[in-house]
Structure formats: structure tokens, C-alpha cells
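Reminder: ligand-aware prediction takes two inputs, not one.
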Amino acid sequence: MKLQNQIAIITGASSGIGKSVAKCLALEGAKVVINYPFEKTKDDAQAVLDEIKQAGGDGMICQCDVSKEDEVQNMFAQTIQQYGTVDILVNNAGIQVDSPFEKMTLSQWNAVIGVNLTGQFLCAREAIKEFLRRGVDETKSVAAGKIIHMSSVHQIIPWAGHANYATSKGGINMLMQTLSQEFAPKKIRINSICPGAIQTPINTDAWSTPEALNNLMKLIPYKRIGQPEDIGKAAVWLASDDSDYVNGTSLFVDGGMTLFPGFTTNG
Ligand code: NAD
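Here is what comes back for the chain with nicotinamide-adenine-dinucleotide:
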């Protein structure tokens, strides 16, 4: 198993991509901390953990709103108390609060930046503190720690009506690259996954009717919507020593969405 005994925190893991990442990492031997934000998502987080345990994996659930500094610190403290350290952070939690720009309220802007960008900053900072404290544990990995930021194709594709979301993802890219430059000498590997359209609760409008799905396919050269497992498998690779020479990279898992399919001229 590629991640035997490694401790992985996955934020926003009670649904969608985070859930699949947690399951995929656990199948490779990682002990997974399944983060969920609010009491109402606790049962979903527990169901993910139950599924993982039934498949022979292990982990715990942990409530934390990633936009709150004290809650993030508490999540890392609980994890370290339970397992002794953290080896992998998957900064996955994210929200969309869409609005035409001229009508976007400050609270809509702050909500998205708070979870998607500040949340990734807060979690990355706590992870890096622990990676620096521990250093390399050669029984587990040749790296001193790994962070995977869940970005989006919208770190490079502008997205009208979603200025807060697209800005948060553009910011994640520069956060990821800067942290990677800063901490590669300490053997800490930091990369991003940029999903295209993945079938999860965040984008139901894009796939829940045949018409919507048909329109979506015009944006995807590979002509299928992505599944959470497409991202889970990529996360396993980026978290494992198989990708040890990969630093500061954005891995686009998007069926070709970033290939400008509107420019196709041969039919
Ligand atoms: P999702 O809505 O199923 O997952 C988002 C998760 O974040 C949920 O589990 C939610 O409970 C959690 N969350 C929300 N606010 C939180 C907070 N304050 N603290 C902790 N957790 C919080 O949608 P998803 O598609 O699985 O999204 C996961 C990530 O993937 C997001 O960062 C999203 O931007 C990114 N992404 C998704 C797609 C897609 O097509 N689905 C495409 C590109 C990027």
C-alpha cells in the first residue's frame, strides 16, 4: 500500500470529491481525518467513516469550519493527540455563492474567500508547522509532508457570475506555488489538483437535466462528466512517493476542459 500508516486530514470530506479522496487514501493505508463543517453534516461524515471501516480502513471524523482559525488549530490538535502527527493535508473544502458581480454583497464575497482561500491558508499553516517539527519519517515517506490544494479549472478560466469563486481559485494557485517554493528545501511537497466538471452536489445545476448535461459536454472534449473517483485517484498519486519529484504543480483533471474546446474547427 502506498500510504501505509500515514495520517491524512481531508477537509470537506463528508461529500463529493472530499469523500472520494478520503476513501481512496484510506484504501492505500492512510488513516483519514474526515473533516465536516457543521453539526448537520456530522451524519454524512460518520457514514463516510463507516464505509471506510467496512472496506478495512481506519480514521476519525472531526468537526471544523476551516474559515475559523481556532477551529482549524483545534482540528490539528485533535488529530495529533489521536495519531501523533499529520503526514498529508488535502485542502478540499469549498463553496460557491454565485451572483452577478454588480449585485454581489460583501458577505457573499467574504464567505467564499473565507472558506476557499483563507481556509486553505489556515490549514496549510498548521500542517506546515507539524511537518517542520517532525521532518522526514523514512518509515512512511521520503517527504516530510504533503499538501494537496483542491483548486479548479477556474484558476485559469475566468467565470462570469462567479467572481468570488474564480478569484479564490486564482489565489489558491499562487498560494500553492509560493508555499512550494518556500518549503521544497524542507522536503515538503505542495501541489494542486484542478478538477473540471465533477458530478457532485456543488454543481447539480450543470448536470441534473439532459439539457444541462448536453450543454456541459460542449465544454468537455473527452465527452463525459468527471466522477469523484477521478480526483481521488489523482490525490493518491500526488500524496504518494510515486510523485516525489513533483513540486508546485497544478494537475488538471478535467477531460480537456482547459483545451479551449470552443476553438475546435474540425467538427
Ligand atoms: P461538495 O459541495 O460536495 O463539497 C464541498 C465540501 O466542503 C462539503 O463537504 C462541505 O460540507 C464542505 N465545506 C463547506 N464549507 C466548509 C467549511 N467552512 N469548513 C469545512 N468544510 C466545509 O462539492 P465538491 O465538488 O466535492 O467540492 C470539493 C472541492 O472541489 C471544492 O473546493 C470545489 O471548489 C472543488 N471543485 C469542484 C468541482 C466540481 O465540478 N465538483 C470542480 C472544480 C473544483
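Residues 11-12, 14-18, 35-37, 41, 65-67, 92-95, 115, 150, 152, 195, 197-198, 200-203 surround nicotinamide-adenine-dinucleotide (CB under 6 Å). Residues 54 and 248 are 35 Å apart (CA to CA). We will return to this case in the review session.
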